[in-house]
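Table S2 (text version). Query chain:
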Amino acid sequence: MRLEIEIALEFFLWGLEAFSRRDCGLILAGYRSCPREQELDRLLERWRQQRLVQQHGRGKTAHFSITDAGRKRLPVWEPERHWDLAWDGKWRVFSFDLPTSRRRDRSNLWRALRAAKFGLLQRSVWVWPHEVETILQDIIRARGIPECFCGFEVSRLFLCDDKELVATSWNFDEINRQHQSYLQHAVANTTSLNRAADLQQLARIARIERDAYQHAFSFDPFLPRPLWPKSYRGPAVEERHSAFRACLCRRLRKLARV
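Corresponding structure-token output:
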């Protein structure tokens, strides 16, 4: 059985700085498929060998804690850090041109730029409010695409303003729908957490919350505050999720002592 290491480790960081073999088995049983005894032991040993976790003690009473390497292995979701970045009022505009004969390169590059959540102003013209040159160089090196970009740093717009550029470059109608869906239809909530009887049930609830939270922000570029549309609900999503995380942490620590 293959378990996603990042997903499993991330869950422990949500509330357990240290966890036992028993804790790990119960949480994974609720979070994904339940590993058999030998599979669980192999999983923990693999994490230990990869220095993702550190073992304390021996045998079935051993406890584990996540290492700095384990933390770095995890994707970081920090909307507020991006929202609070100072904006210098300049737009970075970049474009590329690839012939139709290189359709695969074009498609791969397009996906990479979308994954970075850059704004598509029109056709092959992309925009971003922060320094972007290093990110683009990394994308080019990773994709093996020759240097075909042209970039500009724009300090003044005419014929449109910042609000119009944001509305054109990102689909905030869809972003807002995802935010609203999370806020209105969130299944995982503090009531369900408080009713959970064991770690396995907590893990099932946390799995629902994790997937819903990531979907809510899946298209969100986390623009700095001066560029937010008036209808932007990102802070409400983050507030709801933070409350869930705080409650989950309390329940995890309580049930892990049983």
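Notes on Table S2: The first helix runs from residue 5 to 13. Residues 171-255 form one domain.
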